[in-house]
């Protein structure tokens, strides 16, 4: 019997478990009522009395060793944080990377928020358009030279299917459906057949705005755009309007803001003029109102349009427009803290 006790003692010394569940199985195997150690105790009752003293001593030592060993195994699981799966729950979790909003979306959202505070709603419409909504209703007659201002993507087999060159087409759709007052902005993607360079792309984004009601004046236009410029570029921003031409507005103007980088002192962003152009605007031509069923004797309105890329490049000092469309993470990651 002593031999079997010693054999079991060796066995118990080298016990190992990799989960709490395995440790419990070992406790059952050795220490439960029918376990191997308990069986030896049963057998102990049958041995001759003169052997009991010596064998009893060794047997008690075996029992203590078994208890200690199995408790030790169990405690190792309780204290190192390993769950039954064997996973170490004290390790840091696997982190997952948060994306960031695209810089064009950040700026578009900012523009939408600013105009929302002035009561402008947002509307959108199709990118694939027809001649009527992109040109005809906006005062571009078929042979008008102004059509040359846009290099348009047409579908070769049907010139009445084209990619919109500005979001003014959405404004036409709104005017055709809704009588004034109309106060809305129109963010969206537009397409022009231009050679791609650091400053131009064949796909870009615009926000246009339209305000039509009784007695809307050029002063309303100026004040709205001044508020917008101060909100987007800072309270010290000044604006200036230069006469210009668009087929759908009369009078028309281009608007500059005082250079947000040098504060108007002159730098290479403003080409040492102190001013940077950010948008075009004007009073909606009465012919445009009439073409969409709005009485130009009763209503007047102003409209404006800006390129989101241009404004984003100015705001974040981005030197190449192509960066917006390359999805290079090294570029996009730089906007993680923006917004
Ligand atoms: C620019 C200039 C402009 C408009 C857009 C507009 C729309 C309607 C009627 C009249 Cl339906 N005008 N839009 C007016 C003036 C300028 O955009 O430089 N855009 C990037």
Report Rg. Answer: 40 Å
Query: Count of helical segments?
Result: 11
Mean pLDDT: 90
Q: Strand fraction band?
A: 15-25%
Q: Separation of termini?
A: 79 Å
Index terms:
single chain, 339 residues, alpha+beta, 11 helices, 37% helix, binds 2-{3-[(4-chloropyridin-2-yl)amino]phenoxy}-N-methylacetamide
Please explain how this structure is put together:
The protein is an alpha+beta fold. 37% of the residues lie in helices and 20% in strands. It contains eleven helices and ten strands. It has a seven-stranded mixed beta sheet with strand order 1-5-6-10-9-8-7, sandwiched between helices. α1 packs parallel to α4 and α5 crosses α10 (308-316). The termini are far apart. 2-{3-[(4-chloropyridin-2-yl)amino]phenoxy}-N-methylacetamide binds next to α7, β6, β9 and β10. Belongs to the class-II aminoacyl-tRNA synthetase family. Phe-tRNA synthetase alpha subunit type 1 subfamily. Its EC number is 6.1.1.20. Mg(2+) binds at residue 250. One of its GO terms (molecular function) is phenylalanine-tRNA ligase activity.
In terms of topology, how is this protein built?
Elements: H1 2-13, H2 20-31, H3 36-44, H4 49-79, H5 103-116, E1 121-122, E2 128-129, H6 131-134, E3 154-155, E4 158-163, H7 168-177, E5 182-191, E6 203-213, H8 218-233, E7 239-246, E8 249-258, E9 275-284, H9 286-291, E10 300-307, H10 308-316, H11 329-332
Parallel strand pairs: 1-5
Antiparallel strand pairs: 2-4, 3-4, 5-6, 6-10, 7-8, 8-9, 9-10
Summarize the structure.
InterPro entries: aa-tRNA-synth_II (IPR006195), aa-tRNA-synth_II/BPL/LPL (IPR045864), Phe-tRNA-synth_IIc_asu (IPR004529), Phe-tRNA_ligase_II_N (IPR004188), Phe_tRNA_ligase_alpha1_bac (IPR022911), Phenylalanyl-tRNA_Synthase (IPR002319), tRNA-bd_arm (IPR010978). This protein is an alpha+beta fold and 339 residues long. Helices cover 37% and strands 20% of the residues.
């Amino acid at each position: 019997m002593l031999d079997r006790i010693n054999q079991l003692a060796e066995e118990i010394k080298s016990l190992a478990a990799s989960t709490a569940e395995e440790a419990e199985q070992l406790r059952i195997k050795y220490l439960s009522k029918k376990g191997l150690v308990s069986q030896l105790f049963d057998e102990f009752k049958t041995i001759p009395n003169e052997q009991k003293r010596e064998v009893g001593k060794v047997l008690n030592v075996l029992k203590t060793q078994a208890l200690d060993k199995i408790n030790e195994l169990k405690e190792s699981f309780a204290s190192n944080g390993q769950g039954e799966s064997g996973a170490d729950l004290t390790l840091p979790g696997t982190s997952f990377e948060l994306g960031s909003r695209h810089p064009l979306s950040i700026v578009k959202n900012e523009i939408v928020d600013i105009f929302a505070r002035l009561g402008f709603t947002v509307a959108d419409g199709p990118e694939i358009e027809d001649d009527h909504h992109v040109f005809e209703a906006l005062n571009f007659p078929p042979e008008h030279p102004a059509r040359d201002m846009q290099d348009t993507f047409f579908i070769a087999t049907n010139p009445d299917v084209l990619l919109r060159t500005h979001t003014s087409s959405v404004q036409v759709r709104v005017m055709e459906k809704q009588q004034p007052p109309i106060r809305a902005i129109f963010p969206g993607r537009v397409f022009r057949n231009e050679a791609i360079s650091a400053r131009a792309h064949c796909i870009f984004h615009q926000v246009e705005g339209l305000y039509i009601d009784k007695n809307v004046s050029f002063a309303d236009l100026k004040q709205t755009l001044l508020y917008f410029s101060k909100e987007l570029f800072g309270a010290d921003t000044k604006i200036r309007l230069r006469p210009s031409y668009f087929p759908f507005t009369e009078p028309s103007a281009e608007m500059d803001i005082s250079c947000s980088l040098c504060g108007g002192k002159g730098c290479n962003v403003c080409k040492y003029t102190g001013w940077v152009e950010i948008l075009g605007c004007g009073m909606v031509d009465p012919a445009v109102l009439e073409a969409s069923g709005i009485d130009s004797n009763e209503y007047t309105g102003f409209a404006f349009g800006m390129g989101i890329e241009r404004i984003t490049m100015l705001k974040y000092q981005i030197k190449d427009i192509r960066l917006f469309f390359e999805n290079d993470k090294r570029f996009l990651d730089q906007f993680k803290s923006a917004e």
